[in-house]
Amino acid sequence: MINVALIGARGYVGIELIQLIDKHPIAQLVAAYSREYVGKKVCEIVDSFTDKQLRYCDDELETIHHLNVDVLFLALPNDIAFKHKDQWQQMSHDTCIIDLSSDFRFDDKWTYGQPETCANNIIGQNLIANPGCYATAAQLGLIPIKDNIDGAPNIFGVSGYSGAGSKPNNNNNPEKLNDNLMAYKLVNHIHENEISRVLDKEVHFMPHVAEFFRGIHLTVSINLKETMEIHEIINTYNNAYISFEFIKVMNKIPEVQNVQKTHNVNIGGFVLKNKHLVFCVTIDNLLKGAATQAIQNMNLSLSEKYNLKINTGLINDK
């Protein structure tokens, strides 16, 4: 069995990870860290968790260097994992460390882990930076056509309020979100920088938060260098993603409701006026935007040792 530990087990993504690890055919959660839930049984918080004895531990990061596990997931808020970077570097000699925050996505000592597009880079690596949720949707939407993009793409993003985390703030305040759409960080968002880094091309990203709980919708607007017909564009996307079961290319405009609680990336609604192309991308921010990719990265890292495939243990709820 693959022994797994999770730090940051209280948050929305942490709970999703617990459920996915529990379903994995050869992985088992042996330690879950949360200051708020310390001493409680994991199954009291995550009803479906099958281990009825495992309890949450205190998440004093300085004390966990002794952990003897195969994989350690860091599902912490931004800027916390970075403070302990030397500790992760030391632990990585024996343990695969997968960080779900933004702390190491721009650090060349860590492998950027977008499973469908970076798979060969991830195999055997022990320091993996999980991509951001918005950045995942945007890069998968743009990569098939990036060589034909003229200028900077414009990306209008809307996320459910779970993307603002479980700690109360304005962006997950039900009173402020009721019948509302709130814009934030309209320039220089960290995911804007992440998308630009991955594509090696400037993008303009405008994020918003809405009153639904989970899911992301992007409307992407680009100008093409060379004219293409719609059927050529759709064929380009189909050819790029034909081998990846979670990426769905469609004619109709994808909707958030259809990706909630799934591992899917839906790309579609392609419309073209002269050389101006617009299309949409939807994902579940907690799953494919975070926990799903973390499990895929675990599988890729350990694939040679355990003969794992990229999507082992993930249930594709259609």
Strand order of the largest sheet: 3-2-1-4-5-7-6
The helix fraction, in percent, is 25-40%
**Biggest beta-sheet profile:** 7 strands, parallel
Cα distance, first to last residue?
A: 28 Å
Tell me the name of the CATH class of the largest domain. Answer: Alpha Beta
Sequence of secondary-structure elements = EHEHEEHEEHEHEHEHEEHEEEHH
Short overview:
This protein has 318 residues and is of the alpha/beta class.
Structure write-up:
The structure is a single chain. With 318 residues, the chain is an alpha/beta fold. 27% of the residues lie in helices and 25% in strands. Helix 1 packs across helix 9 (287-301).
Topology:
Blueprint: E1 2-7, H1 12-23, E2 27-33, H2 42-45, E3 56-57, E4 71-74, H3 85-91, E5 96-99, E6 111-112, H4 115-122, E7 127-129, H5 133-142, E8 149-159, H6 174-177, E9 181-183, H7 190-199, E10 204-210, E11 216-224, H8 230-241, E12 247-249, E13 265-273, E14 276-283, H9 287-301, H10 303-306
Parallel strand pairs: 1-2, 1-4, 2-3, 4-5, 5-7, 6-7, 8-10, 12-13
Antiparallel strand pairs: 8-11, 9-10, 11-14, 13-14
Helix pairs in contact: 1-9, 4-9, 5-7
Based on the model shown, name its key terms:
seven-stranded mixed beta sheet; seven-stranded parallel beta sheet; alpha/beta; Dihydrodipicolinate Reductase, domain 2; 2 domains; single chain; Rossmann fold; 318 residues
